[in-house]
Amino acid sequence: MLTSNSANASDSPNGSSEILRPSEMEIRTESLQAGNSPAETSPFNARAYYDALFAAHGPQHWWPGRTHFEIIVGAILVQNTSWTNVATAIEHLRRAKLLTPRAIEKISTPRLQRLIRSSGYFRQKTKKLKAFVRFLRHEYQGSLNKMFRAPTQTLRDQLLAIHGIGPETADSILLYAAKHPVFVVDAYTRRILERHGHPDARLGYEDVRQLFERNLAPDVALYNEFHALIVHTGKHFCRSRDPRCGECPLKPLLPATSSATPPQQSVRTVDVLSNALGKSLSEPPSPDPLFATPTERTTAAAL
Known about the structure:
The chain contains 15 helices and two strands. By secondary structure, it is mainly alpha-helical.
C-alpha cells in the first residue's frame, strides 16, 4: 500500500517522510471570482486547523493502493459509492491481472463491467476507465511516468477533458498518484468551512481549491495529510446530520455564534454523502455530486 509517508518522501523539499505542517499563514474568506462579495470576512487560520486535526488524529496514510495506476482506478471507481465496494472491484481486477493501463484497454467491455460491478454505475465507470487509458496511450504513449512529468495545469486540463472525470477525481489523481501539489476539495471540506463561517456560500469548487492553494505552500505531503484529516473529521465529527461538535478537535475554532445544528441548506448540500459515513478510517472519499461533472450529475440523477 502506498501511504502518504512513504509515497511522498521524495517529493518533500528535504526528502524526508516527515509529515509537514504549514508555515504561519492565514486564509481569508474572500471571493476569488470578480463580483462576489462575501458575507463573511473573518480570517481562517489554516495552521490552527491543521495542527488541531493532526494532533487529534495523526497521519492518515492515504491513498490506499499498491501502484499509481491502482490509485487512479480507485479514484474513478469511488465516484458515488463507498470504498468497500471499490475495494471489492479492485481485488477482482487484481486477481484477473488487469491492473495495468494496457490490460484495461484490451479487456472486453462486458468482462470489465462484470469485474467492477460492485462499485456501482459499472457501465459508466467502464467507459471512464477505457477513456482514461486511451488518453494515456494517445497523449503519453501509455506511460504514467511521462504523464506525471507534465506541467500541473496542463495535465489537470487534460484530465478534465476526459469523459467522466470531474474536478475532484482529476485532483485526486494529480495529488495522490502523480504527486502534484493540487489541493483536493470535497463536500467535507466545504461543510467544515461553512459551519465555521467560511467561505461565502456562493464559492464553487475552483474557488475553494484556490482558497487553500493561494494560502498554503505548494507541498504534496501537506496537501495529502490536510485533505485526509478533513475527510476523517467530516465523516466522524462534522457529519451532515447529528454533528458531534462538542467532541470535535475543531470545537475551539468554532465561531462564538455557531450552533451545533447546521443550517438546513448546508445539510441538504452534503446529505448525498450521508450513506458513506460508515466507511473505514483510511478510505478515500466519494466525490461530491455538488462539484461533479454534468455527466456525473446526470448519472446520479438517473438512479
